[in-house]
Please model this.
Amino acid sequence: MQVRQVGLKGADGVTADALAALGDEDRAVFIRDPCAYARLADDDMRAAAWPPLAETLKAHAAAWLGPLAAVADARCFWRGFVTACSASPAAVVAHAAQLTREAPLRVIELEGPEGADSFEAFTALPFLDALRRLDLQEAWTAPLAARVLASPRLQGLEAVSLRDAEGLPEGTRALLAALPPAVRSLSLIGFINTDFDDACAALASSAGCARLEDLRLWNCRLGPDGARALASSPHLRGLRALWLGLGQYTRNKIGPEGCAALAAPDALPALDTLDLDFNDVGDAGWRAWVDGGRLARFLARAWQPPVTNLRAT
Model:
């Protein structure tokens, strides 16, 4: 399926036209086509349109990346440019000049810090002002994560994830207090050596999570007590999406008791997306949603059709 849009406007269109004029038609196409692809609303159309884009990227990614191959790969391209990178703070600092010049970064997967010098240099990089998502990989502790999130350069972040870090539950409140004000999505992933029910209780009692709309607690050994803490939190009343499942590999097991707590009439009132995959909730857990009427109200809100303004004539 062809998705190319000849009349592309704005900076993307200017760049694509300039590259085509210089003879780099493949790179120009790889700007135009993903822009058109992004506008496709139908999943089937997207599925049909993606393979040609993937083939173009596979053929040219190495040449287009050049020295940036040290901090990015083919997955990091969007609309013809590197918009994400995956590296240590020192590597990002080492490639800062080229990243500033060639990569409109919006996402960074940050490997563990090697030392104070690279940590401080990273948090001062000017292009972090435009960053929207920061994924902190293994080797980050909760206190170090709080330090990096407190950087003035990262106050535009909208999504943060922390993977398998040490320092919870003790550092939970400090971590949440350091979340930039624009953050609406928080993911805590793989805390298999943490008493996560205690961490969840600290999270639920912290005013630092009051702005969250999307919370992902994946593979964290979350149990019924943690689910009850979330359900009764006065600070999560604006939460719209809660993700506790991770397929058959999840270590979360909230069981029927945790599921029933989330089904309480006043629990997480704004919620319209809930994932409890492989949490062993059983028939008893889902029966609590049905018998209390919460399931009907939940589905009515989650599947409400768009409102159309009608005017009598």
Observations:
- The longest helix spans residues 43-65.
- Residues 44 and 50 are 10 Å apart (CA to CA).
- The beta strands are 77-78, 81-82, 84-87, 107-110, 133-136, 159-163, 185-189, 214-218, 241-243, 273-275.
